């Protein structure tokens, strides 16, 4: 809505005055003007409430997602700290597949065992003969590699129980 006192610089003053006389602005009753103003303020207030609700909902949703992620992260850390993963324990307390004796079965154990098999040293040491055939073979290397890369208590454990 333009102010009547404001000049339109594209038109001369004479043209502006002539247009005002040709098309006079009708008077608006005060009651109608107040209703329009009330409706505009109400619509604006609804938009502001909706935006506020959306902001709070998004913030709450983000906080819930962060809390869930934190919970599962702590649970994963707690599980890995309470039980050693990827360790098959024999009755004598020896870790099956732990070739280098660091207390866990990892791919380094499989690599070390593979090098021993390739060099011709097939005399089994504690925890190296996983298929119990009396010698260390490529099958033992494959089982150590499987132990190193699989999850505890999986179906691929071949009967080896994890702690």
Architecture overview:
- The chain is mostly helical and about 160 residues long.
- The protein has two domains: about 15-80; about 90-155, Dockerin domain (Type 1 dockerin domain).
- Helix content is about 55%, strand content about 0%.
- It contains four helices and two strands, in the order ααββαα.
- The protein has helices spanning about 15-20, 30-80, 105-120, 140-150; strands at about 90, 95.
- A two-stranded antiparallel ribbon has the order 1-2.
- The longest helix is centred in the middle third of the chain and has 53 residues, at about 30-80.
- Residues about 80-90 have low confidence and may be disordered.
Low-pLDDT ranges: 82-88
Overall tally of domains: 2
Outline, from the CA principal axes?
Answer: rod-shaped
Q: Report the mean per-residue pLDDT as an integer.
A: 78
| Percent strand | under 5%
Major sheet description: 2 strands, antiparallel
């Amino acid at each position: 809505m333009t102010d009547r006192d404001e000049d339109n610089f594209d038109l001369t003053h004479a043209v502006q005055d002539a247009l005002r006389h040709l098309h006079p602005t009708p008077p608006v009753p005060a009651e109608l003007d107040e209703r329009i103003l009330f409706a505009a303020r109400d619509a604006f207030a609804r938009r502001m409430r909706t935006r506020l609700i959306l902001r709070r909902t998004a913030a709450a949703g983000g906080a819930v997602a962060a809390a869930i992620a934190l919970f599962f992260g702590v649970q994963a850390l707690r599980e890995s700290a309470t039980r050693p993963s990827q360790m098959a324990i024999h009755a004598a307390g020896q870790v099956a597949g732990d070739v280098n004796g660091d207390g866990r079965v990892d791919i380094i154990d499989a690599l070390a065992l593979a090098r021993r098999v390739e060099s011709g040293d097939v005399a089994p040491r504690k925890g190296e003969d996983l298929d119990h055939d009396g010698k260390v073979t490529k099958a033992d290397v494959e089982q150590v590699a499987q132990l190193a890369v699989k999850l505890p208590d999986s179906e691929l454990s071949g009967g080896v129980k994890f702690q």
